[in-house]
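Ticket #4471: complex job returned nothing on first submit. Input attached below:
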Amino acid sequence: EAQVTQNPRYLITVTGKKLTVTCSQNMNHEYMSWYRQDPGLGLRQIYYSMNVEVTDKGDVPEGYKVSRKEKRNFPLILESPSPNQTSLYFCASSLSFRAGAYEQYFGPGTRLTVT
Amino acid sequence: GQNIDQPTEMTATEGAIVQINCTYQTSGFNGLFWYQQHAGEAPTFLSYNVLDGLEEKGRFSSFLSRSKGYSYLLLKELQMKDSASYLCASSGYSTLTFGKGTMLLVSP
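Support reply: We reran it on our side without changes. The output follows.
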């Protein structure tokens, strides 16, 4: 089944404890992206990757890191999480992003709480 | 990123037709997506417009006017399961910018 998977689905952690949220897709998609969704603010892009080894900042990259060593995986790293990073996180992928013509497939989401 | 405006909430009755509007800035614009998101779930793709005009897909249609920076999503024969948030998203060169979403509540 074609899908985007994220792990963990739920995470409660403490301020400053490094964490990684994994994202994997099995559709051979070139483009991958991370979003956070907060009430009243909608979906905001954190980082995106046009292809392997090519990543760039989205609208809200502060406090996050990403890497794209393989086509299928795009982990999101929080080196020192803070309470303002408490949010619902979505990973998404699409076949390509040339002319923005391809729909994005979203993972199920990771609900992160930082205390 | 681009500024995208859409109404926060709308209500409608089962069987009715509802139109959700979306306005966006036109600079660097490539196309316009609509996604549906049920509470607690991931967004799912509904439609994509790159040219002016109406795209029809079953009960859902989407319209785009590039010169006016305007789009709408039209939902016909509303069903209770259509109660969800509808996200308008503007596609630029390499990123997708989402509006804050329109929460649609369908009542019997």
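Residues 61 and 110 of chain A are 17 Å apart (CA to CA). Closing as resolved unless it happens again.
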